[in-house]
UniProtKB/TrEMBL annotation:
It is found in: Cytoplasm. This is Glucose-6-phosphate isomerase. The lineage of its organism: Bacteria, Bacillati, Actinomycetota, Actinomycetes, Kitasatosporales. It comes from Streptomyces echinoruber. The active site is at 359 (proton donor), 390, 514. GO terms for cellular component: cytosol.
Amino acid sequence: MNAEGRARLNQMPEWTALAKHREELGEVRLRELFAADPGRGTGYTLQVGDLYVDYSKHLVTDETLRLLRDLAAATDVFGLRDAMFRGEKINVTENRAVLHVALRAARDAVIEVDGENVVPKVHAVLDRMSDFAERVRSGAWTGHTGRRIRNVVNIGIGGSDLGPAMAYEALRPFTDRSLTVRFVSNVDGSDLHEAVRDLDPAETLFIVASKTFTTIETVTNATSARNWLLSGLGAGQEAVARHFVALSTNAEKVAGFGIDPAHMFEFWDWVGGRYSYDSAIGLSLMIAIGPDRFREMLDGFRIVDEHFRNAASEANAPLILGLLGIWYGNFLGAQTHAVLPYSHYLSKFTAYLQQLDMESNGKSVQRDGEPVQWQTGPVVWGTPGTNGQHAYYQLIHQGTKLIPADLIGFVNPVGELDDELKAQHDLLMANLFAQGQALAFGKTAEEVRAEGVPEEQVPHRTFRGNHPTTTILATELTPSVLGQLVALYEHKVFVQGAIWNIDSFDQWGVELGKVLAQRVEPALTEGAEVPGLDPSTAALVAAYRDLRK
Ligand code: F6P
């Protein structure tokens, strides 16, 4: 038993039952599973809002799924879910509620934190954002010299960058094409340089996005951006008000930077950075797509929130996807999970999920501080198909590793494609379906021989198959569908963290590097001695100093 009265995960009978089942099952073959039950292709599917989720190509039987659901029940995943929706402080190490679900709650919903209903605050900020976004889009909001804003540059990092940057790419067909929208995150000055080098400061709005407003990368870039603006305009500090707004929880620091708190769009400590792009952090996206589309996206999130909250475990998509990840990571030894969207517009989706999943579940102590004795979050990786097919799919098909993957595709293309480009969509999707089939069923040596392949080449041209995939299909990539997809992954990550008994909502692992970077910097810039550097790092710093121009 741990401090919360929960038995250790790997001592639970439900865990032991899964381990035994895995042994008894031996090497389960997808070919055999489908031969025994051809109905599996439709039976192991779910419809969640607009998402059709096919999990038939997984190395599981009905019994596996039942045992996994038993584990979810024993670890009280739904109990923690309900505690989250009730606003309880389930982020134990930071003593905070976890309420990204409140960001997309209906106006009349009631979700309380410390006895206060937070939903009216959420909608008040959304209304202010909408008003501001409309003013920028219509030209009513002008810069210091009276010119309308044509460029929007979001400065933020991690959750204050990846979400809006991903969603801006994903929803490009819905954006106002007369606006230039860019995202600066890296403290490498080249990032800001490339973002602003062809922009006119008189027409540029900077959105400084930082929950804490202390993140060194963001504050540094925002300071450089302010200098670029003021020197470009030949103006004084008074120009900042028309060209800088802030998205933050920290009004004091925002004011300290010189941004009028009236131009700060607020969110709250119960919104984790990686769960925040549907909060004020989404302002750049809202300006790009407009408030109505932004609200459609929130509606999409809500569809999946309600599904997660209400669907029975047999039909609960985030639960099932989370459990499949547990099966592979904890019982079949998989270390990674690939997310492979067959959509150019989802080019940043996997990078976004990397933070969502890996910053949430990259933990090795339990909620009570005891070390875990089981694997936790996977390495999440991937790029859009079909590009990946010509790069690393070789390893998935014929390498030695088990790599569960998600294939995400859309029935119809979006945007103003001409007929010829529209027709390419069928080829794109043919690749998705073909990959799912090839990964699952491979090609046997007999099949290869039957094609007349010389015997010495048969082993090289045989595909073992049995690589598991989930296929997620939607009609088209709309704002609502994007919200649904993101919420699906958010809740999947939640399910896994709940089972592993880790705090999915803190991120202490990023702190040490931050502190050390601040300690090392004076050694690079001022040649100061840094006490306590290890010999390797000290030698690197010395080499850097020698070569510095
Ligand atoms: O990398 C750590 C982290 O705190 C992330 O969780 C967060 O999204 C990012 O830094 C940016 O933080 P902030 O929004 O406070 O600038």
